[in-house]
Each structure stands twice: as structure tokens, then as C-alpha cells.
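Hey, resending since the last one bounced:
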Amino acid sequence: MTFDIDRRTVTEGDVVELTWQCDGAESVTLTLDNGYRSTDIPLEISGSKRFRLNRSKGRTHLTIAVTMGGKTYRKKIDVKVKKIPTVRAEIIDHRGHRVGWLRQWWQVMLTKWHDFRSRLRLALHSLPEQKQMTVKLLTLIALAFILCAVWPRLYGSVLLLVVVYLVVVLLRR
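The C-alpha cells again:
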């Protein structure tokens, strides 16, 4: 029985070629074990086959089992599978210059803020009109409390703004 592989060390996603020859064998089975899952593949008595080794816990075990005269013989080959190196992308501005980490962080924060705001608008518009008004009013009162807690002198001005808002809403209806 001969069983060989073209490479013993690969990177995830690489293709390896197995060759085997088992003269006088009744059956030949290949077992692929990547550490996550084991798969049995029936094979011809001799030949070659190509496999892509995608996912592995560092080693993939290839075992060929040959049945001859009622006895089973096994041969095992271990292939070291390296992880694909992680590529870090950088943001480039319109002039072709690299954008600094602070600018990148700010862009991420703006994206998250816009996403939050659009989800909040969608949730607000899905409410009935009276509940929309209630949510707006509660938000305005909460902001008034926060402003008054930070700057107590604004208390009268903030309450005046709340009253003006309510009058404008009533006059619009």
C-alpha cells in the first residue's frame, strides 16, 4: 500500500493532491479529520484526488483504510494547516493620504450614530400618532431635566421652551 501527499504544510484554502495505490484491496476509504469534523470518502483501488483544505484546528489528519483479506490496514498523514494572515485595511482620503486613527474612530462613531438615529426614527414612525407625540414630549421633558440639572439657571428658559413647543403643536392641529 502506498499513500502520499504533495505537501505537508499548507495555508488555509490551498489545494493538496493525494496519491494512493493499494493492489489487491477489497475496499479503500479516506478519512479527513480537520479537528472540527471527520468525513469518510470511499476511493478507488488506486488513483489520485485533489482536496482544498479550508478550515482546520492547525492540523488535518488524512487516514487511508484498506481492507484486504478481511483485515483493515491504516496509514495516516498529518498536514499542518496555517491560518490565513489577517489583512488590516486602512482608510485613504480623496488625496491618497492615509487617514489617522482618530479620524477612523470618528467615522466609525458617526456611522454608528446615523444607524442608531435611523433605527430610532423607524421605531417612532411605526407608532400611532398619539404615542409619537407622547414619546416626543417625554424626550423633550427628559432633556429639560438634564439641562436644568447641569445649568440650574436655565430652568425657566427650558420650561418656557416646552410650553412654546406645546402651544405650536396645539395650534397646528
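The first helix runs from residue 101 to 125.

Sorry for the duplicate.
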